[in-house]
Amino acid sequence: MQLIILFFALKKVFTDSTLLYIPFLPEDINIENVNGSIIFNYSQQIKTPVVFLKKSAKGEKEEFLEWVKKVEIIKKEDKEKKDLKIIIKFPEEEKFEKLEEKKVEIKVTLPEGIRLGKLKTSIVNGVILISNLYSEFYNVSCINGYINLKEIRGNGKFEIVNGSMEVFVSHNEEVNCNLEIVNGNAYLFINDFTKIDYKVKNGEIYEDTGYKEIGDKQYIKCDIINGFIKIKRKR
């Protein structure tokens, strides 16, 4: 019994952090990750983006340090096209099967007021959080996780399989989004004038009926298979 307790006590969580400074203002951003999170936020203190990456896992320190060396951070910058691409590639699972909860968290801090042309981001087994961002086009996808969209502006498509999506919109600027969910739920907290078209297969609809037809600035289309949609409108 004492040996078993000692074994579990040795399994600690270790972390390793990296900062990437982007020397230009990108118009298009593409980020891909597996096992972790992708977070976008703002700061008034910077003029160009900063990317914070934190690798973490539970296990023995020596194996963690070897795993960290094998995790690939592929960064591609094109100053002329104003493109930024970051891809996380994990090493083969068999070589580090004793490590648990292996993940990489990505936090992208952007200068306040930046307007993107295109934001493409995808994750498997994780979370995507996007707050107060304007993009002419979004292409966001998640498998096995959660998407949270807060006060976004612009146009785009958001997809999730095996997970839920939350959307918060209280501003009166342009929003034109398609939400596609398979095996999960949608929670929409929106204005009374935001137009919604939805289709739910094998699920329920809980709608706040206080819609007011005022212009066409905000439109959300939501398709769900095996899940429910809950709509709450701002008064």
Describe the protein's topology:
Elements: H1 2-9, E1 12-21, E2 28-43, E3 50-59, H2 61-70, E4 72-78, E5 83-89, E6 100-111, E7 115-131, E8 134-150, E9 153-168, E10 175-182, E11 186-190, E12 195-201, E13 205-207, E14 218-225, E15 229-233
Parallel strand pairs: 2-5, 2-6, 2-7, 7-8, 8-9, 9-10, 9-11, 10-14, 11-15, 12-14, 13-15
Antiparallel strand pairs: 1-3, 3-6, 4-5
Order of helices and strands: HEEEHEEEEEEEEEEEE
Low-confidence stretches: 3-7
Task: Classify the helix fraction into a percent range.
Answer: under 10%
**Total E-strand runs:** 15
* Share in β-strands: over 45%
Q: Number of helical runs?
A: 2
- Report the average pLDDT across residues: 92
In short:
This protein is mostly beta strands and 235 residues long. Helix content is 8%, strand content 63%. Strand 4 (72-78) and strand 5 (83-89) form a beta hairpin.
Q: Would you write up a description of this structure?
A:
By secondary structure, the chain is mainly beta. The chain is built from two helices and 15 strands. The chain has helices spanning 2-9, 61-70, and strands at residues 12-21, 28-43, 50-59, 72-78, 83-89, 100-111, 115-131, 134-150, 153-168, 175-182, 186-190, 195-201, 205-207, 218-225, 229-233. It has a 15-stranded mixed β-sheet that branches. A hairpin with a 4-residue loop joins strand 4 (72-78) and strand 5 (83-89). The protein starts with a helix and ends with a strand.
